[in-house]
Amino acid sequence: MIESNEFLPYEGEPDKKRILAAFRRESVDRVPNMEILIEDQHIEKILRKYAGNSLSYGGDSAKGEVSEEMRPMYPDDFIDLCNIIGQDAMIFDGGLWTPFKKQDENGKLVQVVDRSAKSRKDFESLFLDSETQISNTVKYIREYKEAVKRRNSKIAIAPLYGCIFQTLYEFVVGMNDFMIMCYEDRDFIEDMLEISTEHYIKMTKAVVNEEVDFIFPADDVAFKTGLFIPPKLFKEIWVLRMARIMKPAVEAGVPILFHSDGKIDAIVEDLIEMGVNCLNPMDPYSVDYREYKKRYGDRLCLSGNVDIEFPLSKGIPDDIERDVKEHMDVLKPGYGYVATCSHSIVNYIPHKNFIAYINAIHKYAKY
Amino acid sequence: MVTLDNIYRATVAGNYKDISRLVKEAVENGIKIDVLINDALSKAMIEVGDKFAIGELFMPDMLLSAKVMKEAMSVLKPLVKGDEDIIEKGTIIIGTVKGDLHDIGKNLVITMAEGQGFRVIDLGIDVDYSEFVEAIKEYNPQIVGFSGLLTTTLANIPNHIKAINDAGFRDKVILAVGGAPVTREFADRYGIEIYADNASTAAKEFVKAVKK
């Protein structure tokens, strides 16, 4: 049993080569560990100062907060964090939500989060702030690269972006109306998706041009029972678009990690075909990770599945170690595994459990 | 002549455009309103909910069937004025508990519950203890439902129950709970009468609960 109040030393400094090799299912010294998001209270305990959460500083972009005051975590803090927990990559919010904006009562352009676009007329009154989002992402990539160079670090840099579907149902149109429109006004849905797609194609080209180490498109497209809409329809309106978003990275040989919650069995083959190297997070309420290893392990790197509810929140260190080991036993052989939790290291996970989780990963990660 | 089967199929198919005409004709042809609701509309919603739960139908299907139900009820309600018990099974208050922002599951439960003839008051997300209490005072529900997806949900639910108890309402309402990390064992531990792991089951449990 691992008992410690601190992160134990681990072998092999954080190195992009490790995680990129894992994406390609090549040999590595140890299973890389990586989290999409570590929330601010954990980071404050680790770094002994407020440093935001690992995706953003000054707000919670994962919950749809977008403001001028927000930015990614400062790279020096992120490098320090990665060095302590042995993480090979810095993932930052490079444009999670399509930047559809409208003027507030003071005439200021603000991100649309009120689900108010119920018609073409409503939608056409919105403004797509594409250039701002892309130029900000480029700016932060350069800032991260400068810090990596200055610190002689080998940590990878990757932007998380691309929620073309979720932006619309979560923030712009609203779930119920959006889902009905998928059947009843498909043209409108496709027009909205197309605008998002064109924006994110530009984003991919821009980040590839900045030589990021990998890209991390994300879009929650499924529930625990399956896709939100029938697979045939979804493939027609989303798969082809997401493939176009990824294409500049595929052509440049830049690896792709893709995220969606829920049961995405219906589109895994499509994701492989469009060039995805690694699949995240293998939602434990929807995905059988053993089955995924059998079916896709020779074609996909797999990441995720250690449940943030149990063992990470409600378990004890023994439970966590056992669960991490079970995942390692199944997912580690043959390479192509990145140890990640089922969603994010949220604040309500006890910090000692986060420590136990990281220590357990390093205990069992070595090949 | 319009039959119960026509209405059932229209509901399953999400045919909200024709349902008003079909329902009017059915009533004119002598089909009793409570039979229309229980044996066609609500039954169809259960089929839709069950198929959604196993991945055979999808969110738009469920929502369109719910739209059928709403259209049908808008025709039927004026016809039973003064005798609403025929079509309204009761009132449910539902909200995502304090500290939780998730609402997909809650909204599916609302859809299914309305499909069974319940009037549902949606308190939204991140609902404070006092809001549930105030809503109970205002709407006098039979059932109060807690929804949540986070472990913090589980920690707050006993506090919600305490607030309802302290306000003197605990024995006046049936409590229900659901959400991915919630278990039957959790519900039993806190004396919550209804637990469901999907929207269709929740709706069926609501119906059973008010019949008792």
What does this protein look like?
- The complex is a heterodimer of chains A (367) and B (212).
- Chain A has 14 helices and 10 strands.
- Chain A is of the alpha/beta class.
- In chain A, helix 11 links the parallel strand 8 (278-280) and strand 9 (301-303).
- In chain A, the strands form 3 sheets. Chain A has a 4-stranded parallel sheet, sandwiched between helices. In chain A, strands 1-5-6 form a 3-stranded parallel sheet. In chain A, strands 3-2-4 form a 3-stranded antiparallel sheet, with no helix packed on it.
- Chain B is of the alpha/beta class and 212 residues long.
- Chain B has helices at residues 4-13, 16-28, 33-53, 59-76, 104-115, 129-139, 151-166, 184-189, 199-211, and strands at 90-96, 118-122, 143-147, 174-178, 194-195.
- In chain B, helix 1 (4-13) runs antiparallel to helix 2 and helix 1 crosses helix 4.
- The longest helix of chain B has 21 residues, at 33-53.
- Chain B starts with a helix and ends with a helix.
- The relative contact order of chain B is 0.13.
- Classes of the chains: A alpha/beta (367), B alpha/beta (212).
- Chain A binds chain B through residues 63, 175-176, 179-180, 182-183, 223-230, 263, 285, 308-310, 313-314, 346, 348, and chain B through 14, 52-55, 58-60, 63-64, 67, 101, 103-104, 107, 150-152, 180-181.
Topology:
The complex is a heterodimer of chains A (367) and B (212).
Chain A: H1 16-23, H2 40-47, H3 75-85, E1 89-93, E2 100-103, E3 109-111, H4 120-124, E4 127-128, H5 130-150, E5 156-161, H6 164-172, H7 175-184, H8 186-209, E6 216-217, H9 231-252, E7 257-259, H10 268-274, E8 278-280, H11 289-296, E9 301-303, H12 308-313, H13 317-331, E10 337-338, H14 351-364
Parallel strand pairs in A: 1-5, 5-6, 7-8, 8-9, 9-10
Antiparallel strand pairs in A: 2-3, 2-4
Chain B: H1 4-13, H2 16-28, H3 33-53, H4 59-76, E1 90-96, H5 104-115, E2 118-122, H6 129-139, E3 143-147, H7 151-166, E4 174-178, H8 184-189, E5 194-195, H9 199-211
Helix pairs in contact in B: 1-2, 1-3, 1-4, 2-4, 3-4, 3-9, 4-5, 5-9, 6-7
